[in-house]
Amino acid sequence: xxxxxxxxxxxxxxxxxxxxxxxxxxxxxxxxxxxxxxxxxxxxxxxxxxxxxxxxxxxxxxxxxxxxxxxxxxxxxxxxxxxxxxxxxxxxxxxxxxxxxxxxxxxxxxxxxxxxxxxxxxxxxxxxxxxxxxxxxxxxxxxxxxxxxxxxxxxxxxxxxxxxxxxxxxxxxxxxxxxxxxxxxxxxxxxxxxxxxxxxxxxxxxxxxxxxxxxxxxxxxxxxxxxxxxxxxxxxxxxxxxxxxxxxxxxxxxxxxxxxxxxxxxxxxxxxxxxxxxxxxxxxxxxxxxxxxxxxxxxxxxxxxxxxxxxxxxxxxxxxxxxxxxxxxxxxxxxxxxxxxxxxxxxxxxxxxxxxxxxxxxxxxxxxxxxxxxxxxxxxxxxxxxxxxxxxxxxxxxxxxxxxxxxxxxxxxxxxxxxxxxxxxxxxxxxxxxxxxxxxxxxxxxxxxxxxxxxxxxxxxxxxxxxxxxxxxxxxxxxxxxxxxxxxxxxxxxxxxxxxxxxxxxxxxxxxxxxxxxxxxxxxxxxxxxxxxxxxxxxxxxxxxxxxxxxxxxxxxxxxxxxxxxxxxxxxxxxxxxxxxxxxxxxxxxxxxxxxxxxxxxxxxxxxxxxxxxxxxxxxxxxxxxxxxxxxxxxxxxxxxxxxxxxxxxxxxxxxxxxxxxxxxxxxxxxxxxxxxxxxxxxxxxxxxxxxxxxxxxxxxxxxxxxxxxxxxxxxxxxxxxxxxxxxxxxxxxxxxxxxxxxxxxxxxxxxxxxxxxxxxxxxxxxxxxxxxxxxxxxxxxxxxxxxxxxxxxxxxxxxxxxxxxxxxxxxxxxxxxxxxxxxxxxxxxxxxxxxxxxxxxxxxxxxxxxxxxxxxxxxxxxxxxxxxxxxxxxxxxxxxxxxxxxxxxxxxxxxxxxxxxxxxxxxxxxxxxxxxxxxxxxxxxxxxxxxxxxxxxxxxxxxxxxxxxxxxxxxxxxxxxxxxxxxxxxxxxxxxxxxxxxxxxxxxxxxxxxxxxxxxxxxxxxxxxxxxxxxxxxxxxxxxxxxxxxxxxxxxxxxxxxxxxxxxxxxxxxxxxxxxxxxxxxxxxxxxxxxxxxxxxxxxxxxxxxxxxxxxxxxxxxxxxxxxxxxxxxxxxxxxxxxxxxxxxxxxxxxxxxxxxxxxxxxxxxxxxxxxxxxxxxxxxxxxxxxxxxxxxxxxxxxxxxxxx
Length: 1190
Prior knowledge:
Keywords: Disulfide bond, EGF-like domain, Membrane, Repeat, Signal, Transmembrane, Transmembrane helix. By secondary structure, the protein is mainly beta. The protein contains 12 helices and 84 strands.
């Protein structure tokens, strides 16, 4: 419907710069153009931002749209404007789109009509339009039309007194409904008071109370007990505007709604059968004593459309229904308080000063303010006679008064604290009888005196103030003020608005424009929200998430992902759904095997023995896991394989099979509480068998479990449960343990899973015109996109999704640049990251893009993230409606050629492989990972390709482990030695090629590379000995053996040392087949013609200590002895056991690993420095020699 608005000339006053338009009733208008295109229009004499057009609709109306047009036959039109609404003509509220955009788009000429439908209808009597911008070649000009519907409501006022309330008593025997719903609207200027109280059986009650402008949901057990807070919702609810409240009670929870925001609240179990006996509004009444329950005070304000289960309680009061009693006024009586908003750095208000009155002998200034800022100038004025200045300002959220003269502070006073909490705070500055005092919320500080206040300035100073009448060394105040008084006289801000009192700039008068950007909080995942006047900030510390809104997880989604970051075994937090709602969980990642295992413990993984019990025929045990249900379910689902050991050791304790077919024992497994499972580890689901029954090797062929043979000897049924739908094991019920002589023990191992189906989900795009499409991406407020790519092309679009105007796109714009672009209605924005290395190198590169209400960010590999801030007062909803294109665009241009892997949108992985199988030009999967991850294989480890990932082959390395970086060490006693016998070439050919090359290797030598690490406190000692033709380098027969010595003074200090020797031969033939025996520490005979006497003496002493990562060329004798003693040509003498003694962690944590230099007479070249134990072989050109420790 249209409301025809006619201009009443007698309502227009040029000095007020205000037109008031009143409706002459409702009239149907068949054509919008006919009404708006009538001659005339509004055009004020002065075109500036202090003009407005106000419409009085005569009564509260539901306004749904506005339409504007320029002034007829002119070049006058608006290009943007603000809309304000009010019930009383005071205390205006700005209408905002999407809770952010304040301005509306206007016209581009004088004739076209621009209509805007309000996303949320506004209910008001008064509408005010404020021009922001207009045609620069013309003036402000406007023809206006409003659209809406009549609005009817029932309203009451409560004055806050003990008798002003409304009480509804339910009739005894009233049939209980499956849910209770209370809804209403309220407005108030008080920030505290009891709004709603529901009393039930047993003294249980629920209350809704205002506290500091927030609505608190409280639970009470008895009228005198302390309330328990269940929830807090809303903010700034004391702004004297209407707020919607609804409470829906179901059996186990409440849905609490304040305005547009709803929170689900769990309530205690005793409320599941709780019935409401009495509903109190405005005060908390006890239904038995009729006395008020202790609360924050009574509510003072207005209520509208109070409904309980569709009953209109205000109507019942009007009709004097016996169930409802109330002392209320059937209208909304509200005080008039004119506030002023200082929105920006150019805002200021100048008011005339005041002189000391003869009666009081002093002067005073008073006002109230509210703000989110910690700092800012509240007011200032000069002291011309004294040559000084007075500043009243906020600093660190405290109020400070400073009198400054000649460059120094004559007086400083401080009062108040935490004054940036958004609440109204009162300030009084008084100078009486020689004493100056400053009072904040009745907290006073004092000293000095003033007899005269010249013109004062609030918030800031005029930009053109050349006379130094106003000086502001502080930040300007951004916030609201009201109830300004000078010498106890109210300042009429309406006169200021009409420029009849004082001067001002960039103010919003007759409204408080404060906005709580932390209610509801845009900080996700428990991030803590704080704010200033223009922005909010999220503190993400200890949340496990990062970004401007704590949206993106800082943890990987699986152990597999941690492995491919180069991590080794340990405890890690994994976030199975990335930025989704599931919290991170701590798991153990075992990376010592070819598969990377995620291990999730529960409360009883050890073997537990059971004996006959008289407490019952069954023993039941429940297993609690270290992770929550939702985390477990998703972790199992996205793993390639999961398993859990289930073991039962028994003596006269049967397990599954019984003559009648029902099992003695069973277990529950799967999601939630689990389902009953009647098979055992190693068997198939539903088989009611154990592993031996499946394999046919049970101790009694008539049974399918060993324990069902019911023998006196101990036996066992054990195996792995691998059916993911039945995991994890939730509980275990054992039934045959009550007979005399029955004994049993059970064990349920931890849950183990490996593989990550999401991490390796990939597709290969072989043409620029090929693409995959998925349903529309929904990331209205927060959107994060992550994936890996590899390509040989220099450009291409990874992803694109379009809307009517909005879009989102990520592309490779050049061989070194990735671009993230989008538009949410503020115009296209781009975030770019430039790489210093080419991105078309056919290696995996990781892209992470995020867009939220504060900023957009883009991260490429490990480069610093690039960010782009969102406009402070702009659109922030991303509205898309087309299909999501991957690897191309809707226009089939600029497509991507290459591989995309692990594509996730807001934590959800898109199944690229499934879609690729049915899409021409796209292939599922993408091989070739060693080019990206091969560098993880250390110490001569070799990268081996797998379908999903890679594997490090440590055959040529003296190390072991997933990345060939785990040292192989052993502790040696004085009688321990390891001897390695080299094989002849013809013998090597007869050995299996599957044996590690570090065990068998070609003995055709061009030289030697020797490396080992040791730790000992013994000196002297022999570490390593090689028996060959001329071991002491008497190669020419005419020279003495050469000896090289270390410059280090003491190597027998218990610390880890590394020795590396490298020799290059000048003749391959000369060394061929000369090495027959390699000995790692051997007690050499005391006398031998082949041994140097000094060496023989040292060998007789033996060696006690640690040897680690011993290698001779490609041979690793110590590794062969420890890991492959049965298949290697090694001889072990004395006790030998693997140890971690070669790890730096096993040493004194304060003692560093030492790397020393060797020196001696040079024969063929310089000797290069020794290296650390975790390095590859590095050497020089010095002949090989026995290594002795002195």
